[in-house]
Here is the input.
Amino acid sequence: MSGRRKLILFDQTQNERGRLDTTYSELAKILQDNDFDIEPYTEFMILAKNLENADTLVFGCPNSSKLRPAEIDVLKRYVQNGGGLMLLSLSGGDRGLMNNLSQVSKGFGISFENTAVRDDRNNAGLPTMPIITNLLSHPVTEDVQDILVPSSCTLNVTSKATAVASTSDTADPPNKPIIAIAEAGKGRVLCIGSYEVFRKGGGMKHPGNQAFAVNAIRWLSGEIRTARPSKVVEEQEKKEEEMQAKVSAKANAEMEKTMRRLVNAVFDLQKDIGKLDKKIVNVEKNIEMLRDQFQDFAEKTQSQLGVMIPARQFLTEEENQAAEIEADVKALEKEIKSVQQLRDHIEERHSSGAMAKDIFTEQSEKLEERLKRLEENMEKKRKELETIIE
Here is the structure.
């Protein structure tokens, strides 16, 4: 860094809304207090020779005025040769303001969109005065917690550039770039969707805007050459990681509770099935008794009256038993499959580290014991079926 003070020029040739002597007088004072020389640029047209000593050139929202092609070429070469260029717009972008800033910025991967940002939740009293907290870690956001960006348009940012501030999830439009930067050749470019971010009595009342203003000019003028992570963004990222860890831990605890309930439900279901089996046995005995009574009735009626009554109203005892055992076998097969799937799921969670070893051991032992009993019961039923069929 040379010994001379950095020279920052504010263009006044394009009917800018942001004027150094009024709108940006507070910004000028803050920059002067930080050892910058501040001057207006009033020489019409914009010529390369007039920018030779300027470290940064600021366009504070040209109003119904367009840069000429020759001037645009001068600005592009100025950046390539090491100059810093700040372009500020307003809601509506180029179309709403009838300027052509995007003709300059699009070569650096940024353009101003015909939009008007609103945020009903995150604002300084009005939806059109959004407070931006979605900041990227970069020297221009160093020690900046948030930025007030009134009456802003959004930006279209390509891979050549980087968005350093974006609207929130609740904004309209949501999650869109509102401040972007680019580096080209030896120089740098910074585009902001609203010139009012630095307006006296407006954005400059906000502490974050004041810090951002100094950071932005330092970066554009080349005073800051090494990117330092934003402390604010680092703190936000740290909080997000802690929150994610808490959510993950809570989710794992809930999953373990669910798995416990599921395993216990398997055993509770088995108890219920056992009770139901007893009731079924009683029903079967009653059916068998009725079958015997009907058979006896049919035989007596046939012998006394000579009337033939079909006696095959029920399956034989052997057929009933075979059908019951086959149904039991199918039910056991389904239950075995369910327990195996549950066991496999628990093993996967343990292998991935999502389940503690002691919980895994406890639940695995229960399921293995249950699986063993089911398989033994299955084998027993199959042997009974073979005996009946033979």
Q: What stands out?
A: Confidence is low (pLDDT under 50) at residues 226-230. Residues 231-305 form the longest helix (75 residues). The domain at 6-228 is CATH 3.40.50.880 (Rossmann fold). Residues 325 and 381 are 6 Å apart (CA to CA).
